[in-house]
Design goal:
Two copies of one chain form a homodimer.
Chain A (H helix, E strand, L loop, with lengths): L2 E6 L7 H16 L3 E6 L5 H12 L5 H8 L1 H16 L4 E4 L6 E3 L8 E4 L2 H8 L3 E5 L2 E4 L4 E3 L4 H13 L3 E6 L20 E3 H9 L7 H10 L3 E5 L7 E4 L12 E5 L2 E10 L4 H11 L7 E4 L5 E9 L3 H15 L3 E5 L2 E7 L9 H11 L6 E5 L2 E7 L3 H11 L5 H8 L7
Parallel strand pairs in A: 1-2, 1-9, 2-6, 3-6, 4-7, 9-11, 10-12
Antiparallel strand pairs in A: 4-5, 7-8, 11-12, 13-18, 14-16, 14-17, 15-16, 18-20, 19-20
Chain lengths: 419, 419
């Protein structure tokens, strides 16, 4: 029987009613003649509640114990879902990350998967049982409970899909796929039928929250096909897979944005070799995740270095910069958290010139100032004022014709590899 | 360093404040020069909440999944407590039942411990760490998560105390020891300094809720000294240990009662060999836990058989009795849940005649009718009307002088083995 791996997020199992809904969906997949392995996240706000309890005790909980605590959430949702499947007359068996053979390194709270030995899952599947696996967690090489960090359950699902040789990894959430833009902001946003791993990586890295970046990286590395879809409808969602040479490439697949980053500028840095290395080594040592980096040519032997960092990392960044500014004899630094980063993504950019020009012109026509620009072969990102970002996203969505039915059809034609 | 095993119940860790309180107590024991292994129950109502979620889904959850669900509660409290200990500047490491090497049979929801391999706990203790173990749970011989059922955490603690060679197993709860009677009912109830395993077993079996019956059985089998005490005070509690020939034996150590049992009577049973076996086999097959049994001599070749069963088992008992009454051609059966069982317990009864006579006289003087009587060498139990049980307990406590200071001193003298 073909093996299908499914992943259900926290909102999909937030109530008894929703758990029953997920159970029905899993049973339907099973009854259609598939072996089903479903990866389950913690219910709704469970993880936040557990974290809040920990923070009542200490602002900096020891990470090993934090993992012991947080891993309880998925066990609860998994066990409840198994019970729900029993009420539908099918046999289910739940496994912790450890029991499912998800082996990780010992980096608590953001462990990396180092191996998968899903023998118990395979035996249960071979025995005709529906298998449920607690997402987001594993067992370390030193036999402690670990969690995988942000996007962990998606990663569990993709890793199991690869290890079990599943045909597809279905990732269910409360959105029904990947859109050309956030539908809450852009009324005409259109659901994409397919996106390539590269496009999806750029989208996930630049604000699209539908799939976790790590899971897409894992999927690309092992060529696991992801189907991102809604747990509340039967509609087909978005397929994420390797770029196919025979596919027509959309010039632009989507517009994403994030307001979770701040812009930091180190001013008056002596223009000498190794200075940028000093700045970014200091930030890296402070575990600050730097995104865009720009160095402006300066006057009189000085230059400015700007970068974006997650707003959450800003306190650590400030500490690091206080030190490095003094050491380098720079003039100082500024941090601005009123910025937003907006990105235009599309595999077709590689072969279609003029995308950047149209993007900048569209924004200029509206008097929107560009604070920073960075590009990759399939992405152009701009930092602009947070106040204007929604307007800018709508303008670009419109300027690149992302809601036109023509593009719709063109993309639909790409679906030759599906069903 | 001497090893001390402590066990903290659910009410001791019900809030952040209480968790900090337990952490301080553990650290004080550690700082006094002991290796500490603490067994922790789920917080307050966690287990009930998890059960309620399961029952929202199905009235009869599959037991394997129920154990996966319920075992989450102790992991949460253990991890939070470890964090609390860190805030006090000491190192703690929490273990699941599985990690602590609690190996059980495969009887989910009421597994029996079949072996203990606490290597990880021992290594952590040897490394100078405070160790915390999730109570109530283990891992089965087929590698599934199991729970130990009622009194499971006490049993985990006693089993670990034995396996680790601890000098004492301190069982903390919201009561500060074992009393001559329930202090909520008898104003003059007195805390006992020591009770023997046999006395404690009879007390636990007949209504005293301070220690779980199973854990006392385990302690008696392996000669583990239990110290039952309060997590809210530093006062010495009650020591439970092997009867010491040199100890003065109190004639009566306590009066217990329970209102959780119903009296069942099968009427008009043909007076033939094997009939009682048929009745109690049927009840055993229905997993009904029968306590007192009385067979009255009947007239004309018929007799009545009465027994007490837990009120919770009454539905199963009725099903079994409906069948067996028909099969045996008995006249019928009655079930009465307005009864209470009251017991007088004391190791000295073995050598002091007249205890039963004084008990029956005391009750008769108050016009309290005895529905059933059963005895062991150190216990006399009577079933009486639930309405009169508190009055009866007070009367017996008084009649046997359980609150007199004379008895108090006599018992205090017994404490030669404790300092």
């Amino acid at each position: 029987m073909p093996i299908v791996v499914q992943k259900y997020g926290g909102s999909s199992v937030a109530s008894t009613e929703r758990i029953m809904n997920v159970a029905r969906r899993i049973v339907a997949t099973y009854d259609a003649g598939n072996s089903v392995c479903a990866v389950i996240s913690a219910r709704g706000d469970t993880t936040d509640e557990l974290l809040a309890m920990a923070h009542e005790i200490t602002p900096r909980p020891p990470v090993r114990e934090l993992d012991m605590l947080l891993s309880a959430g998925e066990r609860i949702s998994c066990a409840l879902l198994a019970m729900a499947i029993y009420t539908l007359g099918r046999e289910a068996v739940s496994f912790t990350g450890s029991q499912a053979g998800i082996v990780t390194d010992t980096t608590h709270t953001k462990a990396q998967i180092v191996g998968i030995s899903p023998q118990r899952v395979e035996e249960a599947l071979a025995g005709g049982k529906i298998t449920l696996v607690a997402g987001f967690q594993g067992v370390s090489t030193s036999k402690d409970v670990t969690t995988l960090g942000r996007g962990g359950s998606d990663t569990t699902a993709v890793a199991l899909a690869h290890a079990l040789g599943a045909g597809v990894c279905e990732i269910y959430s409360d959105v029904d796929g990947v859109y050309t833009a956030n539908p809450a902001i852009v009324a005409g946003a259109r659901k994409l039928h397919t996106v390539s791993y590269d496009e999806m990586l750029e989208m996930a890295a630049s604000g699209a929250q539908v799939l976790a970046l790590r899971s897409v990286e894992y999927a690309r590395r092992y060529n696991v096909v992801i189907h991102s879809r809604s747990s509340f409808s039967d509609a087909e969602g978005t397929w994420v897979k390797e770029e196919d040479a025979s596919m027509e490439q959309a010039v632009v697949s989507g517009v994403t944005y994030t307001t979770d980053e701040a812009k930091v500028t180190v001013r008056g840095v002596p223009d000498q070799p190794g200075v940028a290395a000093d700045v970014f080594s200091a930030l890296a040592d402070a575990h600050v995740n730097v995104d865009m980096i720009i160095q402006n040519v300066g006057e009189q032997g000085y230059s400015d270095i700007s970068c974006t960092v997650p707003i959450d990392d800003l306190p650590s960044a400030r500490e690091a910069l206080d030190r490095v500014v003094a050491e380098l004899g720079a003039k100082g630094y500024t941090a601005d958290d009123t910025m937003a980063k907006m990105s235009l993504i599309g595999a077709g950019m590689r072969t279609h010139p003029g995308v950047a020009a149209l993007m900048f012109r569209t924004l200029a026509d509206r008097g929107i100032n560009l604070e920073m620009i960075s590009t990759s072969p399939i992405k152009i990102s701009c930092v602009i004022s947070k106040d204007r970002v929604e307007e800018a996203v709508r303008a670009l969505h419109d300027a690149f014709g992302l809601e036109s039915t023509a593009v719709n059809h063109e993309r639909a034609d790409r679906g030759v590899w599906h069903d």
